[in-house]
């Protein structure tokens, strides 16, 4: 079923809210109020487009650290996110035991990744195997950066999913860099989707600034996976508009001209113009959304600032399962 106009507007709102939240995280870092931030700026269209293709609460999401907009789309509130940046006790991913952006949300079937890149891919295939063994019709969407598709874990996970025809969609968010290393130093092919043909599953490349194109590609892959037709690799091409993280200075490895060039392809601008051109949104409505996003981010920062930190003596308690939970 095609996306309704209401759904399309809701998706754009999710992109915009995530962007304004992400920008505030950079400010909080520079103000010395948080220790670390890793940004999804430039990747929102692909993330929101992809995550709208799975069924909330039924399917599984195994994301990576840049997927803030996916988490917002799946129900993580801006306050929850700021709490994780500030290491507050109530933050939902780990009660502040993990680094920020190691997202998980138990009620939404979102599974945290580990800090070593690509380890989430075998986890996703493992979940896919469990779904197949249980005869369920759930699907797993997992994400990764293009640089991390050079890791052995990614090949092993995709190979295993292809052999066993597991219901997994491997989305590669190709933002052209792995910290300072450009794509051409990570792979000899122009797209991570090309790696799929050697492993025996479909590989599809899409423009990651076009939210509805990403949605269509991921939806088809999800539908195929649900029918039992096996996994797919989808690469969405985009550009990382910020440095790698709050601790990176990208002036040492890319020119300002290059960054300025890609700012013209900022997915917020691309999608805003598209919605206005298609008559789905007016400039006035856009301004109202901007005001709403600012208020939502202001409120989140205020609420998270007031929230308590975890108690020192409880630091290890939720990290390990209690013995009675093992069986
Ligand atoms: C196994 C491993 N090696 C190195 C690192 C350090 N590291 C963290 S993020 C990153 C770059 C990953 O780039 P990419 O997969 O393209 O994702 P992006 O950050 O660009 O979204 C690296 C090398 C790590 N976390 N784990
Ligand atoms: Mg990358």
Number of DSSP strand runs: 7
Task: List the ions, cofactors and other small molecules found in this model.
Answer: thiamine diphosphate, magnesium ion
What is Rg?
A: 19 Å
As a percent range, the share of helical residues equals 40-55%
On the 0 to 100 scale, the average pLDDT is 96
Strand order of the biggest β-sheet: 1-2-3-7-6
- As an assembly, this protein is single chain
Provide a count of the helices.
10
Question: How would you characterize this protein structure?
Answer:
This protein is α/β, with parallel strands linked by helices and 327 residues long. It has one domain (5-308): Thiamin diphosphate (ThDP)-binding fold, Pyr/PP domains (Rossmann fold, 3-Layer(aba) Sandwich), CATH 3.40.50.970. Helix content is 41%, strand content 9%. The strands form 2 sheets. The chain has a 5-stranded parallel sheet with strand order 1-2-3-7-6, with helices on both faces. A two-stranded antiparallel sheet has the order 4-5. α1 (5-30) crosses α2 (44-51), α2 packs parallel to α7 (211-227) and α4 packs across α10. The mean pLDDT is 96. Thiamine diphosphate (TPP) binds at residues 66, 115-117, 145-148, 173, 175, 177-179, 240, 244.
Which terms summarize this structure?
327 residues; alpha/beta; Rossmann fold; five-stranded parallel beta sheet; binds thiamine diphosphate; binds magnesium ion
């Amino acid at each position: 079923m095609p996306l309704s106009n209401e759904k399309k507007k809701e998706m754009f709102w999710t992109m915009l809210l995530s962007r304004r939240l992400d920008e505030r995280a950079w400010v909080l870092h520079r103000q010395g109020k948080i220790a670390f931030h890793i940004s999804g700026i430039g990747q929102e269209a692909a993330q929101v487009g992809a995550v709208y293709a799975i069924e909330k609460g039924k399917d599984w999401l195994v994301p990576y650290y840049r997927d803030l907009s996916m988490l917002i789309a799946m129900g993580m509130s801006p306050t929850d996110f700021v709490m994780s940046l500030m290491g507050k006790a109530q933050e939902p991913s780990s009660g502040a035991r993990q680094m920020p952006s190691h997202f998980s949300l138990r009620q939404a079937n979102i599974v945290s990744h580990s800090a070593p890149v690509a380890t989430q891919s075998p986890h996703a295939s493992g979940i896919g195997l469990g779904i197949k063994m249980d005869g369920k019709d759930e699907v797993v969407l997992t994400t990764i950066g293009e640089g991390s598709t050079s890791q052995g874990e990614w090949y092993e996970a995709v190979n295993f999913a292809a052999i066993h025809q597991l219901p997994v969609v491997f989305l590669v968010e190709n933002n052209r860099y792995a910290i300072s290393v450009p794509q051409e130093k990570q792979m000899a092919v122009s797209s991570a989707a090309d790696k799929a043909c050697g492993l025996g599953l479909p590989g599809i490349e899409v423009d990651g600034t076009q939210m509805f194109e990403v949605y269509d590609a991921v939806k088809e892959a999800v539908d195929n996976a649900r029918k039992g037709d096996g996994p797919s690799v989808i690469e969405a091409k985009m550009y990382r508009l910020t440095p790698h993280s709050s601790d990176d200075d990208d002036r040492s490895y890319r020119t300002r001209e290059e960054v300025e060039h890609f700012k013209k392809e900022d997915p917020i601008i691309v999608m805003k113009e598209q919605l206005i051109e298609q008559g789905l949104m007016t400039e006035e409505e856009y301004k109202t959304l901007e005001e709403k996003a600012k208020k939502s981010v202001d409120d989140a920062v205020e609420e998270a600032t007031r929230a308590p930190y975890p108690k020192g003596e409880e630091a290890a308690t939720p990290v390990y399962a209690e013995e009675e939970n093992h069986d």
